[in-house]
Design brief:
Elements lengths: L6 H15 L3 E2 H9 L6 H13 L3 E4 L8 E4 L1 H10 L5 H19 L2 E9 L4 E9 L2 E10 L2 H13 L1 H13 L8
Antiparallel strand pairs: 1-3, 2-3, 4-5, 5-6
Helix pairs in contact: 1-3, 1-4, 1-5, 6-7
Length: 181
């Protein structure tokens, strides 16, 4: 994976994400979005994020009802990212925005994802679950002898669970147009 190493690149990356998301978010959500593709380490994220707040590139919006504060990019931050976003590779920019939007889509619907590889001594299987508001909306289990294949399937499910869900639904309902079949 292409980890960002300099503080400047990490700051540009954080601003780039916030600029493309276009809404105020809680710190936990920003942290999860920034770290989900392993471009940034947790300690680096927090240090750079707080520096961006101190520099007025990111504004904190306090809540009157006791909820966690939210953060949004400022005009100054948008100007910085507009001038410096090309310092980030095209891969990092495209991948991070796609992942952030997928994260927010699931988050806004209350969806959570679980995936695990289970071994009962005889068989090894991948179990994948998508829940919305605590209710399982999609569950699957694949048993395979090839551990590499299971790891690859687990990775692909975690990378794009909505696509896996849509593919299953297309096949099971006979509406294979989604798959181009």
């Amino acid at each position: 994976m292409q980890e960002l190493r300099t503080k400047e690149d990490i700051k540009i990356f954080i601003l780039y994400l916030l600029d493309n998301v276009g809404m105020a978010l809680e710190l936990e959500d920003i942290n999860d979005m920034a770290r989900q593709d392993d471009f940034v380490k947790s300690i680096d994220f927090m240090e750079c994020f707080m520096e961006l707040v101190d520099l007025d590139n990111i504004a904190m919006i306090k809540s009157d009802d006791g909820e966690e504060p939210k953060y949004e990019i400022t005009q100054k931050g948008s100007s910085v990212v507009a001038a410096l976003k090309d310092n980030l590779s095209g891969y990092v920019r495209a991948r991070s925005v796609k992942s952030a939007m997928r994260y927010l889509s699931f988050k806004q619907r209350g969806a959570t994802l679980e995936s695990r590889i289970e071994n009962d001594g005889e068989n090894t299987k991948l179990v994948g679950i998508i829940k919305e508001d605590g209710n399982e909306i999609f569950t699957f289990s694949f048993m395979m002898e090839n551990d590499y294949q299971l790891q690859l399937m687990k990775h692909n499910f975690e990378e794009d669970p909505e696509r896996v869900y849509k593919a299953f639904m297309s096949i099971l309902t006979g509406d294979t147009g989604y798959l181009g079949i």
